[in-house]
Fold:
Amino acid sequence: MPTMEWAWLIPALCFIAFPIIAIFGRYLPGKGSFLAILAIAAGFVLFLFVAYDRIDQGATGLDVFTREWFQAGSATLTWGIIVDPLTVVMLGLVTFVAMMIQIYSIGYMKGDPRYGWYFALHSLFAASMLALVLADNFLLLYVAWELVGVCSYLLIGFWYEKQSAAEAAKKAFVTTRLADVALLVGILLLFREVGTFSMMETFHQAELLMAGEDSLLSSGTALTSALLLFVGAMGKSAQIPFHVWLPDAMEGPTPVSALIHAATMVVAGVFLVARTFPLFEAAPDALLVVAIVGLATTLLTATMALAATDLKRILAYSTVSHLGLMMLSLGAFGYTAAIFHLMAHGFSKALLFLGAGSVMHGADQTDIRKMGGLAKVMPLTSFTFAIGALSLAGIPIFAGFWSKDEILLAVLEHRHWLFLAFTLLAVFLSALYMARAYFIAFRGELKEENRTAHEAPTSMALPMVLLAVLAAGFGFIALEWGGGFEGIGSFLFFDKAHGFEFNVALAVGSLVLALLAVFLAWSSYLKGKPYLSTLKSLTTPFPALAERGYFFDHVYQWTIDRVILVFSGFLGFFDRVVVNDTGVDGPANSVKRSSFNLRRHVTGRVYNYALVMVLGALGLGVAWWAMVAVG
Amino acid sequence: MIDLAFFQIVSGALFAIGLYGVLARRSAVLVLMSIELMLNAVNLNLIASAAFLDPSRFTGLIIAIFVITVAAAEVGLALAIVLRIFRNRATVNLDEIDLMKG
Structure:
């Protein structure tokens, strides 16, 4: 029976599937799509064995399996995997969601000219993400991290014939790449101090530092490197100010958006902070920064989601907002809550994106203003979308309710009450925009042009139903079931296990806020009551600002046009005039000029040569005579 | 009695006349003839020196024969070249033969 040590096979299978599909896919039935699904399904089965073995051998333990890769100087590089609760949980999320999305894609991408390549990329994407969560050293993690970035670039720009898709892919790649530089610097800084890329060794030093014993890390280095790692995480997880790439990434095929938003790419940043949590704990100031960035992100992007009218953009801003919540939770020492919310959000958001894809497939619309009443023609999509929306809105009994509650609890316990107030505001906004999207798109009068819309085919419906089941019921793993299972807090935790904690006042308060938001959306968008427009005019100028995305894109564009391009223009001028014309061409030109002058001595007349020869001979004679006479 | 110095003066004069011819003449044939004159000046010098300084040895004579041989070969080659130039350019004037001009 496969044990934990087999976990490396999970990404390996997908890595192997990638070149096979890319090269031989065109000769295989279904263009090789079944290979990708087979690989990820095998990964999912392996995950079940690994999870079983993990629980069997002490559920909260941590095992590292390494093989030496090569030695360079004093540093030994290894291939290695960590199997601990965090890894197991992430493996489950990634394999399951990726599998669902690939099955869904069979129907969604039918007839695409690059059908096989699409599945090959999906395999590589899943493989990179799986390698990322398994990596036991920073170098391997960085390699997987960059592979994730490349895959997202290729998939967002999958329809690269479209100008906007190509530009969105470029934007996503450049933005995340910018942040990755900080990650690399952070990793190298840690390597310089600790002398190894191994995470376990680094964390051990961080714990020594915490305990006030002799450590290779100084508190300054711990803070600097934690912040640098966090900047890398901000890029991938689209935290302000790096969030601009995620809404544009909607240009890719919708299942790709689902994958990026739920299981891969954006959760990599949250995962990185969770994985390197010992380091962050040794630098509490870094955690405060994490909390502040998370809170700012969640609030700003929630209002942007409220102002957006494109269904996929609403979901994209919602993702950024919830990623902000996860970061905030990590920043408030809510390790369990963050990962719990990551999973609850992952299932819900994958479901919502598949629903949005189903709407695009069936009704060929992305603007919610042109939708309305779709529940009548797409009952299944509408129903599953509602479950996803309820989960994200934090309505009990759906998954998002439990995880959101844990986050609120963590913020209440570890941070200033202002943090809690703003988090509650974010919860309210989150419920409001989800309700808004659902009511406008699926309820109300069915528009004439949407009467021909049709329900999704089976291959698309099945993943939606399975994900809906999880989005609805996943939250119950927070509870104590008895029989040895004491809730997710006793399995996945940092420092000390804790059972399910429930603050009644907090839960009721957040629920009232969420229900109020749903009621407001219902009465305003379906019953025509002016509550929301009143609210909008009360909060001026925020709605207008949110509609323009708080001018982040404008500021970046201005910076690129006026600062970077001007500076690059100056550098280009310097290169052309000083380096090229003066430095390189200058000497060459002077040699050329002197050659032109010097060539005049070559007269081509034989008596000139003869004269020189005679003078030379005379000169030699005189020299010889002089030497004899003197010497 | 004629002294060695007389031979050397004649030889030097011949050499100088030849040198002048090489440098001053514009006709390739005349330049060749001047070179022959220089070679013969050298021959005269060699033979005179050999006869006056050490008559029992004939090193100088042998070198003179070498020079005559080389001169014959040289004239044969050089005249052939001059002929080819004349065929091609209808002139042997060195002023006009400046293909190597830079």
Notes: Chain B has a mean pLDDT of 90. The domain at 4-89 of chain B is CATH 1.10.287.3510 (Helix Hairpins).
